[in-house]
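Below sits the subject:
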Amino acid sequence: MATTLTITGETVYMRLLQESDMTTIGSALTGFREFSIAPTAKSKVRFWYGHNKENIAFPSTERIVTSEDHLLLTLTVCDKSTDAVIGYNTSQILGTTIQSAMTALIHSVRNTGKYKEIINLRHKFIFNNLQAENSRMKIPTTGDSNPVKLTLDALYTGTNRTFYPMGMTTEFRESTITAANWTTWIDHSDRAAQKAQTYNLTWN
């Protein structure tokens, strides 16, 4: 397991999940999946155990992904100025395709631009450092003010399938882009500021 894996951006950074993060992460997860109601002590322990077990199996030093990889990486999202935990991000590595499993933020930082920054950091990490060939995301098909939809629709223009996640009434679509799609998108002059945003990786 990497002793340090930290991705640092303009206003947030993402680091390996710690057990002490679970109180805050539990509040970010209320309403999702196993946390359809307020999380219990047991459900938080179960979440920590499962995700930490996967993190332990993650490579201890920087390397690119291979077709043989089947990994799950869960990073806690922290506010850069205060070090406060504000959410988490999980990515599933399926060979050279990396699928976003979940990003959840506490209520007080939703709709503040944090999600957009996290997604920017995620794509730079998986394409520049892991050298993934593809990225796959789940995007709601309705809700024009939804930050997920607002952030991803312009980049993830195709649709593999539509579906309703278990226990949810919102329709989602699954979409995949290639590394070349990402490069073309981020290199556009309209996104020069986004491309130039702070990005630093420590992995050892």
Q: What stands out?
A: The longest strand covers residues 70-79. The longest helix spans residues 41-56.
